[in-house]
Design brief:
CATH superfamily: Sodium:dicarboxylate symporter
CATH class: Mainly Alpha
Number of strands: 0
Strand content: under 5%
Distance between the termini: 37 Å
Shape: globular
CATH architecture: Orthogonal Bundle
Radius of gyration: 23 Å
Helix content: 55-70%
Number of domains: 1
Order of helices and strands: HHHHHHHHHHHHHHHHHHH
Number of helices: 19
CATH topology: Proton glutamate symport protein
Length: 433
């Protein structure tokens, strides 16, 4: 006898999150409270910096291992080394083209708006002994190649050298792929380790709002809200430049790849908001890896493209380097004709790829860039130290969005995306398991 339809228990609908349970709301609230504390109680605000630093270190603690597990499992599972090489070549070409466009947009916008013109700053008066600026060491192409290979695998992980970890992971994964089915026990073990590492990340994410609170409170307390006033034009110009890049570059690329940029940004909104507070792109790498795979992108593409993008696809950072370099030239009265700016562009095409090797310090790479131009005074960087973190919030945000778009584009080129899953996930929005 058939069971009456009315007696069949219906599945309980998933409980909708209350607004205060949403991580985005919590992080934004933490940032708002941080601004208030930093402005009203600067002595307390400056003491809150460790809250943000602890969170970033928790993520940095496992990022190298997560890159290793993701890249190794993704490549070795393919067992087709020709496909791996094809993905890598396509990714590098994409990175070079888009970052070059970013540099050009950055240079054009800063020249049109000229926020630093008429400031007549004497760079000699800007040097603050308490704020030493050490340019990153310039390296030749041969030294760059040598630096790709760690002295030992352990050394790469210990120093957090993402490029070196990536090189080791790719080689190790190719070695496993060559073993065929004999490598399966190792892959199973790596997958288990990866799941344990992501558990650590889920636990760390619970303190993300506190981290954003501490980081913002320190920034406002140290530099003060008034530090925004004299450089408001640069901040406005740079944020406008980032918006132009989203509209003119990323949105058309997303349309070409068959997805909505706005829906993608909504899908990764928690990560985008988090990097605004922490200024650390590493703090969201594990979550982005998980979400991109959930969007239907094959593990082999995510595992190779996303870590490589973290080293080579610095869209926002390129916008920053171009804008700030010319701004400092304008502010100090340094002559920068189009010939000199084309030379600056050539320098930036090289130095912007060094960001990953300078442990998150765009200031150090900027100093190296200015030193290479031999025209813009290096110590003029002191002009932007007070607003660097505000500018960094925009360029790290842009970097993360650009890396997500890059992964989906390469996935499209490789026919390595489940289109139905992608459309469903973007339409419904991300839901934690």
């Amino acid at each position: 006898m058939a069971t009456p339809v009315s007696s069949v228990p219906l599945p309980r609908p998933a409980r909708r999150k209350r607004f205060y349970e949403d991580l985005t709301f919590q992080v934004l609230t933490g940032m708002a409270l941080g601004v208030a504390v930093g402005a009203l109680a600067p002595d307390i605000g400056q003491q809150l910096k460790p809250l943000g630093d602890v969170f970033v270190r928790l993520i940095q603690m496992v990022v190298g291992l997560i890159i290793f597990c993701t890249v190794t499992h993704g490549i070795a599972s393919v067992r087709d080394l020709g496909k791996v090489g094809r993905i890598a070549i396509k990714a590098i070409i994409y990175f070079e083209v888009v970052t070059t466009i970013a540099l050009v947009i950055g240079l054009v916008t800063i020249n049109i708006m000229q926020p630093g013109a008429g400031m007549h700053i004497d760079p000699a008066a800007l040097h603050n002994p308490g704020e030493a600026i050490h340019p990153a060491a310039s390296m030749s192409f041969g030294e760059f190649l040598l630096n790709l290979v760690p002295k030992s695998a352990v050394d790469a992980f210990a120093k957090g050298e993402i490029l070196q970890v990536l090189v080791f992971s790719v080689l190790f994964a190719c070695g496993l792929a060559s073993l065929g089915n004999r490598a399966q026990p190792v892959l199973d073990g790596i997958n288990t380790v990866s799941q344990a590492l992501f558990w650590v990340i889920r636990v760390a994410m619970k303190i993300a709002p506190i981290a954003a609170f501490g980081a913002i409170a320190f920034t406002v307390a140290k530099f003060g809200l008034q530090s925004l006033v004299p450089l408001a034009a640069l901040i406005g110009e740079f944020y406008l430049t980032c918006v132009i890049f989203f509209v003119v570059v990323l949105a058309p690329i997303a349309w070409y790849a068959g997805f909505s940029l706005l829906k993608l940004m909504r899908y990764v909104r928690e990560e985008l908001v988090l990097v605004i507070g922490t200024n650390s792109s590493e703090s969201v790498f594990p979550q982005l890896t998980h979400k991109l795979k959930k969007l239907g992108v094959e593990e082999s593409v995510v595992g190779l493209v996303l870590p490589t993008a973290y080293s080579f696809n610095h869209d926002g950072t390129c916008l920053y380097f171009a804008a700030v370099s010319v701004f400092l030239a304008q502010a100090t009265g340094t002559a920068m004709g189009w010939e000199q700016q084309l030379g600056l562009l050539a320098v930036l095409l090289v130095t912007s790829k060094g960001g990953a090797g300078v442990a998150g310090s765009a200031i150090a790479v900027l100093a190296m860039t200015l030193a290479a131009t031999k025209s813009i005074p290096v110590n003029s960087i002191a002009l932007v130290l007070g607003v660097h973190r505000i500018l960094a919030s925009a360029f790290v945000f842009t970097n993360i969005a650009g890396n997500c778009v890059a992964t989906l584009v390469v996935g499209k080129w490789e026919n390595a995306i489940d289109r139905k899953q992608l459309d469903h996930e973007l339409q419904s929005g991300y839901r934690a398991a």
